Amino acid sequence: MDTMHVELNFIGTIHSPFTTKEQAPPQGKDTIGTIELFKKFQDGLKDIEGFSHLHLFYWLHQTHEPAMIVQTPWDDTPHGLFAVRSPHRVNPIGYAVVELLKIEQNILTVKGIDALDGTPVTDIKPYISDIDARRGTRSGWLGSARRLEPKAYSFSVTSQWHLTQPSLLKGENKEPIIVGCPIEFGGTTSNWSPEHLFVGSINVCIMTTFFWLLSRTDVQIEAYESTSVGRASLTRTGFRFTHVTVEPRIQINDETQRASVLTLLHDAAKQCMVTNSLICQVSVHPVIVLPASGT
């Protein structure tokens, strides 16, 4: 049996200072939050106050479909999903060892929370050092990277306007481009508008992420071309992008590599930094072609 469906019974809710995924740290070692256990499970807390730490299990309710190959913030090498602590899991089960600070009826105050506010709790167990602590452990690929801080990058551009010159977008060591409003909002067809740059950044990010993943495999392709279309609609808060469609067309010479190429493209869409920073939906519809044989 490959799959089995089960029913989960949540036992409570996590309350933390993190309301968005961007706010949540990779590990919440010093963050204090509370676990509100549902009243009908309160009796299950009997004698828990004698333990300094707890195993906390919760449901990662705001994650997306996982990629099997994952880039972490700790080093430059991609790793398999089951060799990393990414929150995006096949079954989105979260886990942390937290320090128990205080209990008031059905409310547990704990230290070490990294989950979002409102995260459902699936289970709580006591941490028992004689059983849970292990000696002689190995940290795998993280052994050489754990002294590194999570990587952070900055990207800087400058927009420039003069009365007698076209508006420019400039960046260090980059050719400037002429920018302006799109024709829909009073600009000209020759302008690179913010809207075109937005849609283009998604397209290019998926492409470059795909080639980054491709370079770490034996898979080969002959050509790559991608078209992206962004749909902007009037909402209650004004015009905003609601959906971007990306249609990569990839030429291969070996039909046996079709599945591998599709998997890499799927993973690229999931790992694209630009896509992961958006609130609008992004859909990828790939077309894989063989020379002189059609789609």
Number of domains: 2
Q: Return Rg in Å.
A: 24 Å
Percent helix, as a range, is: 10-25%
The quaternary structure here is single chain
Q: Unreliable runs, pLDDT <50, ≥5 residues?
A: none
Indicate the mean pLDDT: 87
CATH topology of the largest domain: Elongation Factor Tu (Ef-tu), domain 3
Enumerate how many helices there are, as a single number.
4
Query: Can you write the helix and strand succession as a string?
Result: EEEEEEEEHEEEHEEHHEE
The coarse silhouette is globular
The CATH architecture assignment of the largest domain turns out to be: Beta Barrel
| CATH class call of the largest domain | Mainly Beta
Describe this structure as you would to a colleague.
- The chain is α+β, with helices and mostly antiparallel strands.
- The protein folds into 2 domains: 12-128, YaeB-like (Elongation Factor Tu (Ef-tu), domain 3, Beta Barrel), CATH 2.40.30; 193-289, GMP Synthetase, Chain A, domain 3, CATH 3.30.300.20.
- It is 15% helix and 31% strand.
- The protein contains 4 helices and 15 strands.
- It has helices at 129-132, 194-214, 258-271, 273-276; strands at residues 12-15, 32-37, 53-59, 69-70, 79-80, 93-104, 107-111, 120-126, 158-162, 165-170, 177-178, 223-235, 238-251, 281-284, 287-289.
- It has a 6-stranded antiparallel beta barrel. Strands 12, 13, 14 and 15 form a 4-stranded mixed beta sheet that branches.
- It is globular, with a radius of gyration of 24 Å.
